[in-house]
Specification:
The protein has 269 residues and is α+β, with helices and mostly antiparallel strands. The protein has a single domain (3-198), classed as Arylamine N-acetyltransferase fold (2-Layer Sandwich). The chain is built from 8 helices and 13 strands. Helix 4 crosses helix 5. 36% of the residues are buried. It holds the Pfam family Acetyltransf_2.
Length: 269
Amino acid sequence: MDLNRYFERIGHHDQVACTLSTLRSIVFAHATSIPFESLDPLAGIRISLDAEAIFDKLIRRRRGGYCFEQNALLAAALREVGFEVEELSARVWYNNFDGTTPPRTHVFLAVTVDGTRWLADCGVGGSTPTGLMELDRIGEAQELLGETRRIVSMDERLVPTSMHQVRHGDQWSDVYEFTGETMPKIDQEMGNWWTSSHPDSKFRKNLIVALLNRDGTRCSIVNNEFLHRRGAEVVQRIHIGSRGQLSDLLRDRFGLELPANADVSPLLG
């Protein structure tokens, strides 16, 4: 893990130590610098979870990625610094378009600092947290930059299960559920294959790009709509009607290039 290249990519210039402040600054810098994107599945390009392939894509080629790439890179960097990191599995309910039970195809991080476990996640697209959450602080609202989140128990489950939620106005919205079970690399490979290859995966059927900005606002593209929002408030909305317009938005707002063989025409207009 080339920490210097990684820190250059995310614009992190602070002192580094195994402290909570360092953890906060690294996670925030990563989340606001490397966009969430699913362009490769739309283009039929295989996503590799090899550590070198992820580093090459997200750091050298300055691309983005989804959870298996984003949080693998983040975990590698944090371990290089000296943090104790676990990779945990989850089911994402955020943007669950058809309402059916989602597959267990999300990985997020639990990072222990001075005996406290912190939820760190740079891979939930438009719902990527603006900061860290205390993983074992159940039922209490936690204030992050410009947003409120919580972790609640789902008592009716046979296996103890928690739900990560975010508040929009007066309503709590589900982000993902988890049991605390770790997600070994082989399980991440299985989840990555389904997410990037299965015809029913939302990433094979939808264009999804998102980036958290340093002021707490978010930019996102879902199919033919670009949004710049502050919480639930829409600051700017753009209807995307052509491939050229999409290419311009990807380049100007996210620093990304649209792959030449990405079939996006059915999603636009």
